[in-house]
Amino acid sequence: MAVPAVPxxxxxxxxKSTSSFGIGSIKFQCSLFAVLLFALLYSSSSQSIVxxxxxxxxxxxxxxxxxxxxxxxxxxxxLFYYFIESERDPANDPLVIWLTGGPGCSAFSGLIFExxxxxxxxxxxxxxxxxxxxxxxxxxxxxxIIFVDSPVGTGYSYSNTFEGYHSTDHxxxxxxxAFLRKWLLKHPKFLKNPVYVGGDSYGGKFVAxxxxxxxQGIDAGHEPRxxxxxxxxxxxxxxxxxxxxxxxxxxxxxxxxxxxxHKMAEENCNGNYIKADQSNGLCLEAIKQYEECTADIxxxxxxxxxxxxxxxxxxxxxxxxxxxxxxxxxxxxDSYFLTHVWANDPSVQKALHIREGTxxxxxxxxxxxxxxxxxxxxxxxxxxxxxxxxxxxxxSGDHDLYIPYTATLEWIHTLNLPVADEWRPWKVDxxxxxxxxxxxxxxxxxxxxxxxxxAAGHTAPEYKxxxxxxxxxxxxxxxxx
Length: 481
What we know:
By secondary structure, the protein is α/β, with parallel strands linked by helices. The protein contains 15 helices and 16 strands.
């Protein structure tokens, strides 16, 4: 196919990390025996309050808990999580379970680069344990958030069996549902809090599936009863056809391809740029010209330099420190390597109470996990949830070429909901922060809110933290954006 495929996780291209373990590797098999031995020493679930972290000066100004929850028939899967209590009113504020994409990207990525209360000081990095700074625009100003390393093999999560490392969209979602139920049983003070499922990029699939499982569980009388109120998806993967066909016309909107190229594609490809008719020469030519025009564009955010992430130990050894990059183009992805340095440091793993020997090497995105049965679409789940009238926020960075905002708006329109508020700008500090359109469930009176985030990419909070905090705060409070 000519048009670039829908990303597994938008911040990076899908390189395979040789440092991560996969089911077929000898290194993995050897390390798994060690995992089994170590796992016998621990209970199936554990959690600890973390008061200080290497790289952060002084005590943490928020409540951080890290731990494992065992799921599976014999609790063979040990899902690791970071839980941060709301910095405002944890007894009453929403509880969000946040699902990072990939599949295989650690929850720490969403915590540190997007919506959590910590950030790296990349500019001052000179080696050693990276410095952590406080992020004043964290979503924990409005909600308590559970960041989960899922599916198993992601981040610090691991399995006690070989078979446990294989996952699918459905299985990962079932595991997350089991995780949330067990977590709530161990944290009963949050049982009455309004619950939201949130995530971005490929995590958008998990959000739809997990939210539906929770809804079904409520119908079935599962305990504990989860106080589900709605869900949040950002720059989300939702439907292969809609998402995959959106980039070409979006590139035309953004001035990346000419009117003539767009017209040739529009007149000859019948709206299908993913599986173009190989006998249709004019369609193939249009797609070829589109590819040539966007080959050197950063699909994460078309305004930024096009560069690749350093993902393995070998890649990182070749990376220059920020002080050595003065003559080279700035690259957002250069800062991602700090996660690798920080999360693999023994002092960090000790502070987080990581079970020794359970992982060989932490990587931000583990593309070597054994994963199959990727659903091409989760639209049916969005439709099922829409019939139940759940409150929804779907937002997109308006310069994301991987999953353009037009794709998200298109599948929202398929829900056939009445429009409550027509397209209009929304503002932060009297400045336009993006554009929004709101739909309403007549039966419940709850809204489906769509929003773009101006000048943001894939995914939006990484680029516009202050604006995204204002957006989600208004969503939680049922206020228009």
